[in-house]
Predict the structure.
Amino acid sequence: MPRLEIYLQKIRHNTRTVVQMCKQKGIDVVGVTKGVSGMPEVAKAMLDGGVCGLADARLRNITKLRSAGIDAPIMLLRLPRLSRAASVVKLTDSSLNSEWSAIRSLAKESRKIRKPYGIILMVDVGDLREGIMFHHVLRSIRRNIAITKMHLHGIGTNVGCYGGVLPSEKNMGILAQIAGDIEKQFSMPLSVISVGGTNCLPMVEKGMMAPRINQIRIGEAILLGRDSSRNAVVKDTYQDAFVLATEIVEIKDKPSEPIGTIGRDAFGKVPVFKDKGLRRRALVALGKQDVRFAGLIPTDPGMKILGGSSDYLISDITESGVNYRVGDEVRFHLLYAGLVTVSISPYVNRVFKEDIK
Ligand SMILES: *Cc1c(COP(=O)(O)O)cnc(C)c1O
């Protein structure tokens, strides 16, 4: 089976780097575990590294964290389903919300089990995923807050997820301004002004975040040391805390164009090929069932991923400096899409490592 090596010491280091940078600007870091489907060992490494709490998009992942004995504050990132309000309050300490019907259910559950609960109201500053549109927020609170019988713990926003909108002084400023307006108009102090994710880090580093913003939700920078929204790496972090390793099962010289009439491939696409003559190809025991190929970077820069099917990855090793043989191990670094998919595959073994190499 392919093996996912997880270097916990590197995750701790990446966490410390991010936490220290944000702390200098008065911002707490929440460690986001959805990229590793709530792997408790990784969550603990984030806590060791100094995050103030954890966050995940799925209750199932959060259940896993709680079952592993983690009692740190946990935030639910995805809007709660009304039908799961009781579990949400039981398992988490806060959640991101945009619907008053859901907020009312959470408030009711929290009173029922006498557990204080943090409602963070999401403000959409333009990315057009979740949240109340920024110019409607005050009106919306005025209409609903009394019936809810619950104070807001804070407000938050998310950028760069659907619309690809980057954080700016303008859109972050809008959030901070709304926070001030809410506190004034409703005499309701807000504990948390939350932004995310990794794409907000450069603004924090440059000291461009509005001073009111005091929490940032970070996954990618901690797990992978990367900011994919800018195709950049994060300073003083490891990009190889996760390594996917597997074996070569065939090496043959083959033409670069298939022979015969081309139909659809295993995933319904009509493939296109360029004639580059005879190429040396290695078939690797790793399939699209296991991982999204676009999220893989071979550690051998001479190896090119050509494509594959459910159970094979096909690579071109003609230009590699390595003299591969069948049975040799090949290794890949991961991008977010690769990590998310590989961490839920039952066909991949996980091996936790403490060394740094
Ligand atoms: C995934 C997610 C984050 C973390 O984003 P990264 O880019 O992985 O740092 C933060 N907030 C929300 C709401 C998310 O869904």
The chain has ten helices and 19 strands. The first helix runs from residue 8 to 23.
